[in-house]
Structures are given as C-alpha cells and as structure tokens.
Amino acid sequence: MILLYSDEVNPRIEYIGKLIFSNILQTEIAFTQNSDKFRKSELPKINYSHEKFDDEFYIKPHKLIFQKALITPSINPVWYEGEKYFCETSKDSDLPFDPFAASFYLVTRFEEYAVNQRDKLGRFRYQNSILYKYNLLQKPIVNIWAKLLAKLLKEKHPSFEFIEPKFSFLSTIDVDNAYAYQNKGFLRTTAARAKALFTGNKEDYAKRKRVLSGKEKDPYDTYDYLDSVFAGNEDKVKYFFLLGDYGKFDKNIAHSNNRYRALISETVKKYDVGIHPSFSSSKKGGKKKVRIEKQRLVEITGKEVDKSRQHFLMLKFPKTYNRLIKAGIKEDYTLGYSGQPGFRAGICTPYCFYDLKNDKVTDLKIIPFQVMDGTLRYYLQLQPEKAFEEIKKIMQEVKNVGGTFVSVWHNETVNDLGTWEGFRGVFEQMNKLGFEWANE
C-alpha cells in the first residue's frame, strides 16, 4: 500500500491518486491529512503538500489540484530528462513537474471544456491539445509517469512492489453502413441508380446491378471475413451499430430492416455489441435520441446495452458523457482523434470519467482508442505498409506500459477495394500481432 499525505485531501487528489496507483499500477493507496501519522508510517509514502518534512518522497502540488471547478490554471513548460512536461513544482521536490496535476489535466480533458476553436463538425481539434504542442501525442504519458513514480518510490522504499500491468488488445468495428447497395429500400436504391446514370458512373451502376441481382456480393458485406480474422479471439472484439434515423450524416439502412436486424442478432451471438449513437444525437434533442437508439438495439438483441461509441466521434465535454450516463451507458469508446493516431488523454488504461463542472467522479468508464482506419488512409494518406508501421509503433508504446490497445475499423474498410486496397492486409497484421501479444 502507498500512503499519500496532503494538507487537503479533496476529490481531485483522491481521483488521480487512485487512477495512477489503483488503476495503472494495481497497488492500494490510502490518503491522510494527519502529518504525525504520515511521518510515523513505515509504508511507502508520498508527501504531496506545501511543506517538506524529512527525506520522504516529496512533490509540491500544482495549484490546479486545489482549484475549484473550471478555473483555468496557468500551464507552463517544464523540462525533465529531455522531454517538455508541464505543471511545475518546486526546487525541493523530487520531480520538477507534478505528475498528479498534469495527469489530472489530461485525463479529465480540462483543456476541452473552454476551447472555442473547433473543426467544421464542432469537435475539439488535436492541434489545440497540449500533447500535440509538446510533441507527446504519440506517448501514453500518464502511464509513463505512473511507472516513473513507481521507480522513484522504489528507490526510496526498496520493499515497495507493484504489479507490472499486462498488455491487452481490443479490435472494434463500427457499422455505419451495413451494406453498400442492398437493403436500402426502393426510394434510396432508385435515387442512387439514377444518380449513377446521370453522373456517367457506369462502373458503379453496373456493380450495383450485379449486387442487387445476386450475381455479386455486396462490397460492404465483410462479416464472414471478419469472423475468420477474429476466430478464437471473439472476447477481444466489439461491434458498434448505428441505429439512428436517416439523415445527412447518418446513412445506414433502416433499423427496422429484417436483414439488418438479422445481421445484428447473429453478431451478438459471437461478440460484445454496443450502440453507435448517431450524429444527430449529438445535436438538439440528442438526449432523447440516444435513449431511443439504445432501446432499438436492446429490442433487436434481447440484451441490455451498456456500451457506446459516438458516430463521427462527436464528443463534447461534459455534455456527451452526461447524456450517455442518463441513457444507462456504462462504457464509452469514443475518446480519440480522427485526425491523428495517439493518446488524446495521454492514457491507455480504461478509467472513470471525472465531471469537472461538478468536481466529482462518475461511474462511466472511458476506454480510449489509439488508431482508426480513416485516420491512416484519409488524414495521413498512408499507403498500407506505412500504415502498419504507424500502428505497430503505437501498439509498442502501449505494450511498453502494459496498457490497452484499441483500434477502430469499419466493415467497409476491410473489403480490399478501391481506396482501401491493401488495407485488408494491414488489418490482418494488426490483429495477428495484437492477439499474440495479448495472449502471451
């Protein structure tokens, strides 16, 4: 057990102390405001206060940890072992930066609450993140700091032992559009055919005709292929189905379509399934839409639904997470960037959402992802070989700290056609390596 002393043990200190020691390092932690008890204790201990006592491990806390609600702190760079960190401490501290405050700033997404610069969809831009500015976005820095704290504590207390976290792997599939041509209904199918003719897209028109006549498989129907890749590792796979009403950014087939319902019913027999809240659910009236879409999935599967990932990664703090909590969601897999691979919150360990507006921890578990198919192909414009190199680099970072590697792919991006030619091999390599490492 670790004993942490502070002048004031507040919810922020308890939250980040438990995240670092209990969640990441899998070590018990106790808190005290009693200086005499602390000084007499033989436990491995940390003095996290404004006064150093003896030769104990000492960190003077950054003011962020004691501020109330959303008062924005000043964040200044601090150099340590060749890296630029932040949340300065004091000269008599054992570290020049405060890893507790810096970690709290990152995992709560403090910087996302007040930012005005957003992308065209209203999302937080990775370019505005401190991790991107400090060249740390591709590092699970919170996990790295946790291991640093463990190392320095062991130097002070040689008897201190902690469990080395074990690498885990999750392969997740978003079903935004279950089929390219089939099951779209008479009006959508007729309109699409007319558009192909009008624009002179003879190839699309001919392919659509072959698929609809049963002569060729729908290019988005990759579910048997996915089963073959996941065989034997179904427990490490999650699917998220879009069940929102048709709209500009929500173009899946109708939730009432029998073929689509059958697909979901078959999928839930083999894999864990969650809801993919629609783009429109992130707008006005979204609270009601999330509940409706979740209930549709419950009705189709006959099972309770408590997992989600936002369509288009539409995530706004704290509104989105509070909406999900009210809808009965227990785990969310949205946290990551569409424009860059890496660690949006600097962490690769699942953790509970902390509501900064109310200064309290919630029961909603956040499972961050690091890599998405569209990021590699559309944003970074990588060829397959380079794409796998990028994935492996990030996966190695996660393995180094015993974190959870999570990827996002879609049923249509593994069809090996068009712009996705060659990416089926990337998908297979990633899963093969991930399953091997997770099963070691």
Describe this structure in words.
- The chain is α/β, with parallel strands linked by helices and 440 residues long.
- Helices cover 37% and strands 14% of the residues.
- The protein has helices at 11-24, 35-40, 99-107, 110-114, 130-133, 141-156, 186-198, 202-212, 223-230, 258-270, 286-301, 319-326, 373-379, 384-400, 423-438; strands at 2-5, 29-32, 45-47, 57-58, 77-80, 83-86, 168-175, 237-241, 272-275, 307-308, 331-332, 351-355, 360-366, 371-372, 404-410.
- A five-stranded parallel sheet has the order 9-8-7-15-14. A four-stranded parallel sheet has the order 2-1-3-4.
- Strand 1 (2-5), helix 1 and strand 2 form a beta-alpha-beta unit.
- Helix 1 (11-24) packs across helix 3 (99-107), helix 3 (99-107) packs antiparallel against helix 6 (141-156) and helix 14 runs parallel beside helix 15 (423-438).
- The model has no long low-confidence stretch (mean pLDDT 93).
Strand ordering within the main sheet:
9-8-7-15-14
In round numbers, the mean pLDDT is 93
Give a short account of the largest sheet: 5 strands, parallel
| Number of E strands | 15
Tell me what portion of residues adopts beta-strand conformation.
5-15%
Structure classification: alpha/beta
Low-pLDDT residue intervals, each spanning 5 or more residues: none
| Helical segment count | 15
Determine the N-to-C terminus distance. Answer: 28 Å
- Written as H for each helix and E for each strand, in order along the chain, the element string is EHEHEEEEHHHHEHHHEHEHEHEEEEHHEH
Q: Tell the overall outline.
A: elongated
Cα-atom radius of gyration: 24 Å
In which range does the helix fraction lie?
A: 25-40%
